[in-house]
Amino acid sequence: MPKIEQIHAREVFDSRGKPTIEVEIRCADSRAGRAIVPSGASTGRFEACELRDGDTNRFGGNGVLQAVSHVNHEIAAALTGMDAADQQSIDRALCDLDGTENKSRLGANAILGVSLAAAHAAAEAQQLPLWKHFAQLWQSAADLGQFPPPTAALGQQPLMPLPMVNMISGGLHAGRNLDFQDYLILPVGATSYREALEWIITIYHRLGRLLTEKGYEGVLVGDEGGYGPKLTSNVQAVELVIEAIEACGLKPGTDVAIGLDVASSHFYDGTHYRLAATGDERLNSGDVIDLLEKWVSAYPIVSIEDGLAEDDWEGWQELTRRLGDRAQLIGDDLFVTNRRRLEKGLELAAGNSVLIKVNQIGTVWETFETLRLALQNGFWPVVSARSGETEDHTIADLAVATAAGQIKIGSIARSERLVKYNQLLRLEEQVGHDAYQGGRIFSALKS
Ligand SMILES: C=C(OP(=O)(O)O)C(=O)O
Ligand SMILES: [Mg+2]
């Protein structure tokens, strides 16, 4: 048993230059395992609580020295001597120690840093690559069984994920140049992860040239590295991405499909969805569903995230009735990787897919629980980064180990994203090209 000997946290910085927490855990006779916590900008209201210092004399109140102190004192005292490989007990101890529903006392950032670093430390101590340690944990966690369609192929043996990659950024990630947050591509026709990534890189560069040729900003990028042009409408972004796919000799829909992260909670005023790009157009849920249905019919869109707001359960039910067999409908702000919110979604038949962000819930084990619940109920999971990221590649290993099937990390032109894409290239050498479902995971969708 790799016994925890030392836990140490420090304040470091993320890709937006915002403070975040790094945790190192050392077990006897081994190198320390280290993890850095990501941070969102378009956060859901029901996410676990990130503890920030609030002292406006330091980084506008965004410092994380209190969270650091919680790790170095209270958490270190409680966890020293525990088995780093017993993730379930570590995560339970962290939750019990915090004692709140949303991890607001010690901070979800403090808790997640320790939870992730424990996994790294356990892998180090057992001389295992992280993905293999995660795979052991995932497999050991209660009977995986056989999952129902469309997720039957997922969750079993380690699998290379289909990358869903941001080409054009909008919303809170790009100064609200556009209303919708992400215009993504899914290389559904690629036969390996490497091929998928090569297509993505080619299309990304072609899109940049195309934007510049048309007089738009083809070099400025948003928080996740997607281009951030000021276009005349939201739908124009879809059309430009399709044009770039075609310009690369690839077939939209067959080779490369389109995804959206509407991130609609962030332009919902409680009554209306307000689209600034089309002159403060005010839509209700039904209007947004009509719009999305029109787009799904007109364009090869196979995935829509947060098409409606985080509280609009009735709207989500209608969206799912209308589009659930034609597109993956991902709940991000809606489910916030929280088992209880996902249970509600399953009960109400709201959505058919869940975004998995480790810092929305705050521990590895709870992330596994939400993932398993999704797979058991035929929901597609998509492991996701945050808009504030670092050199930490943990989620790439986690996506492969749990065979989640899809990953969303942002674009390829920023190092905090590329570190995960490059890690996946390394992992593909270990798990093999065959361990790639690619677009086959969408075979249940009607065209
Ligand atoms: C990654 C996302 O953004 P953020 O991290 O800002 O919530 C998202 O909305 O899916
Ligand atoms: Mg989102």
Automatic annotation (TrEMBL):
The entry's localization annotation reads:
Cytoplasm; Secreted; Cell surface
Active-site residues annotated for this sequence: 224 (proton donor), 357 (proton acceptor)
- The protein's predominant localisation is cytoplasm
Enzyme type, top EC level: lyase
Reaction(s) this enzyme catalyzes, per UniProt: (2R)-2-phosphoglycerate = phosphoenolpyruvate + H2O
- What residues bind (2R)-2-phosphoglycerate, as annotated? 181, 357, 386-387, 408
Q: Where does Mg(2+) bind?
A: 261, 305, 332
Q: In what residue span(s) does the Enolase C-terminal TIM barrel domain sit? A: 157-444
GO biological process terms, semicolon-separated: glycolytic process
According to UniProt, this protein's pathway is: Carbohydrate degradation; glycolysis; pyruvate from D-glyceraldehyde 3-phosphate: step 4/5
Organism's domain of life? Bacteria
Q: Which cofactor does it need?
A: Mg(2+)
- Might you give the EC number(s) for this enzyme? 4.2.1.11
Q: Provide the Enolase N-terminal domain boundaries.
A: 4-134
> What Pfam family is a match for this entry?
Enolase_C
Protein name from the UniProt record: Enolase
State the organism named in the record.
Answer: Symmachiella dynata
Gene for this chain: eno_2
